[in-house]
Amino acid sequence: MKSLFLFLFATIFSLTAYAQNELPSITIKDLKNKPINIKHEYAEKDKVYVFSFWATWCAPCISELEAISEYYEDWSEELNMELVAISTDDSRTQRRVRPMLNGKDWPYQVLLDGNQELKRALSIVNIPYSIVVKNQKIEHIFNGYTQGAEHELYEVIKGL
Amino acid sequence: MKHTTLLFTALLLLFVFSVVAQDQSINLQEDNEKESKYFGRFYGGLESNVQYYVEDSGLESAIVPEDQLRSNNYLYANYNYNKWTAGMQIEAYEQNALLNYNPKFEGTHLGIYFLNYKDEKWDVTLGHFYEQFGNGMILRAWEDRALGINSALRGGRVKFAPNYNMEFTALYGRQRSGFGVTSGDIFGFNADFFLAEYLNLYEKNQDLSVGLSYVGRYESFDAYPQLQNPEFDELTNAFSLRADYMWGAFYAVAEANYKSEDGILNVQNLLSDQSAKSGNAVTLNFGYSKSGFGLDVNLRRMENMGFYSRREPEVFTNFEGEPQTSFDYLDTFINFTPALTKQHHSLLANIYVFQAQHSVLFEDPQVMRAGETGGQIDFFYKFKKGTFLGGKHGTHIFLNYSNWYNLPGRYTFNPPDYDVDFFGRGNKYFSDYSIEIKKKVNETWHLGFNYINQYYDQRLLGGGDLVRADIVTAEATYNFTRKRSLRFELEKMWAVGDRQDWFGGSIEYNFNENLSVYFWDIWNYGSDKPEERVHYLNVGGAYRIGAYRVALNYGRQRGGLVCVGGVCRFVPESSGLTLNFNTSF
Description:
The complex is a heterodimer.
Chain A: H1 2-16, E1 27-30, E2 35-37, H2 38-41, E3 48-54, H3 59-78, E4 81-87, H4 97-104, E5 109-112, H5 117-121, E6 129-134, E7 137-143, H6 149-159
Parallel strand pairs in A: 3-4, 4-5
Antiparallel strand pairs in A: 1-2, 1-5, 3-6, 6-7
Chain B: H1 2-33, E1 41-53, E2 69-81, E3 84-93, E4 107-118, E5 122-129, E6 131-132, E7 140-141, E8 143-144, E9 149-150, E10 153-163, E11 166-177, E12 180-181, E13 185-194, E14 206-218, E15 235-247, E16 250-263, E17 276-290, E18 293-303, E19 315-317, E20 323-325, E21 361-364, E22 367-369, E23 371-383, E24 395-405, E25 409-412, E26 417-420, E27 428-440, E28 445-457, E29 466-479, E30 485-496, E31 502-510, E32 515-523, E33 535-545, E34 548-557, E35 560-564, E36 567-571, E37 574-584
Antiparallel strand pairs in B: 1-2, 1-37, 2-3, 3-4, 4-5, 5-10, 6-7, 8-9, 10-11, 11-12, 11-13, 13-14, 14-15, 15-16, 16-17, 17-18, 18-23, 19-20, 21-22, 23-24, 24-27, 25-26, 27-28, 28-29, 29-30, 30-31, 31-32, 32-33, 33-34, 34-37, 35-36
């Protein structure tokens, strides 16, 4: 059994060389139940998409989305960018997404990843977690959020 | 066994280096990329949680297990080539899993494997898969590593979507338990219809969708020799019907579930011939929201909705020599019945956490329950910028009001039986009323305030006193520069019953967007028992760069429930050093 795992690990390491930073072709739903394919829906040439994974119960996620919303108008005017907030809330809290979004007055498109299919495909362990995508390629990952990291996000988007 | 840990560590390091090396070689590769063939896509992630448990003379009830160094490790890897994806997850619990994880998570093995084909209409999986029907009340196969849950089904699943307005799912599988599967066969069917286009509802600013599901669980009675002539069948059927309607800023969702007659476990967790009941659950949710305003009402009544892939739980002896069942490890649960309450982030508001009461329990003549009924109301409001209460940057308010009760009706202890009413409420289990205010004063100061009132009747929820608590928290963040900030929070809980009053505080310093450190303490100064008047001190930090995140913590773990998304796992008191690492590739 042990040697089998060794073999598998070895295979994996050799394969990492071929890892491509591409978005997985996964379909999840928006707040109107409309299916959205992550890879194909956000494919406008040279536009930068930020996929921000959050949940209604996650305090740093809310701080992050709140902080970005302060600058969002300026950013989207200056840069060709869009933020898509992907809620990982399960059925316990998913019903809170819509009122919270409006209650907070956030300008983002929200998608629901209720059974965490997309989160799993991207191997996200903890949220907040943001990925910056341009031309269907993952250019940058933010694994977590600390106060002020939105400025780094701005720099990253600007640099692309 | 020691060398297995070494081997794993070595492989982990090798992996990290290989990824780093790969990052550096990307530039070189890019030039060749256009000419090279498409090799498919390889992706996945690695997570490692290591804990070293230490003796702690100041914490009387702290557990020091036999293997002081324990770890849970997960390597998830997928390979995608056009419409095909193959994936697997290797899990290593070395030397043993972290304290109070399911004892069946032992050693290093292949936990998950699957092969998937996916095109525009078809999605076919062989092997392990995760799934949820509706809100999960009759089926949710999922993973939560922090809770030690992996209820993936192993078998086959076909999803078919002839167009964007309908989707069908059919599945068969056996549920994962530890590294094996249980003997129960699970059959499932689900259909979702999005009707807005057919009914021209989008033009009227409306939306309507309906769904229905079936889940069958077949488990032979051969495993239960005590059953001679049971009043229930080997096959249990569960049905679900739901509708989701939206009209402008208004929305409503309703779901009804029914489970056919199934054996009810007695206090010893055993089935008997005569003890059988059907179950049902009704959820109603509606709300109204527009810019700066949100209102949500969520009501639910649930009766005898425990649904397991193996009817009787396995019994284990835990590290303290006490019996524990597989249900305590959330093993073999087919459905998902989360508590519908607010999930607080304050430390003290997470001491008395309500768990949904989905099943029937006859503990003694005073504690007899058949489910739960209740609801919660959420209210969000933003005082706009420039108004008196909004100030320069606006002010956010969030109110939550939750109440949960036993089902009202007639209960008899011997023989155990109940006849419950649909409407009304029985003894109160739990309530939680809270207000949260968030305010950004200026670029330098951000403030937060919470008041929470809790009622938690431990007499009905696992033993202990009735607890009434008031919690106040205040937090402030001071931003030195755009990237460097200091956050501090003070918490106070006044409680009657159980361990009484607590005080807490935390400080978090963010050096920059990559590095932060923290220190927190909760102090049970008000307890009647001197040995409980302890500080639970913790110090730690996290470093993150790109997809990598490493966190280190040293301190005391308070015994009690650790909850993620409304599902809780019990953890014992302990002291030690924790290391968490995760990345994706």
